[in-house]
Write the structure tokens for this entry.
Amino acid sequence: MSENKQIDGRSTRAQGIYKLTHDLLLESAIELLNNPKMDPEKVTLAQIAKNCNLSTAVVYKHFPDRMMDVYGGIITKVSDGLLEDLQIAALKEKDPVRLLERMLTIFTESAIETGHATRIAFSNRHTLLREKKWIEQQPVDTMTEILSGVPKLQEKPRVVAQRMHYMWNGLLFLWISYQKDHHIYSKYTDAWFRKESKHIVSLALQS
């Protein structure tokens, strides 16, 4: 084996180890942010490292900007998972309207699955956007592409896609605001989020 191949092999293994460690740290962060015994606003890098039996030095290497990097990492992880799920859905569902409905279901279930991790990441979205740690591929682009296949669409695909995006983000904002004992915000449960998100595509197409 040549020296170059040995170097390439070591580099590939190092990249694989780095990704596995990064994913492990993100899973640890999501677990802690959703721990009912902890205040998600006070979760630290040291706690994330300890929770998955890694050193503090390792977690700082992966998240040099501290919790902002963690939140950005969670958003990226969720985004990557959404893209994979959507690609699978596109192979099974050829009707563009049903595919859009499936897409929004995937978005909603992903948000609910990550729970407080999603809530706290989205509550810091302005900082994440400014520091370019937010989602690179906007959902509007994907929705626009799918809508281009809808027959007899009355408006430009991007206009409808933007409307869907606004509507879903409106539901997301209310869901993020959920408080168990609040006289108003106690309404915005996971079940409410699931139910309301199912109507977005039909409402957006009717407008």
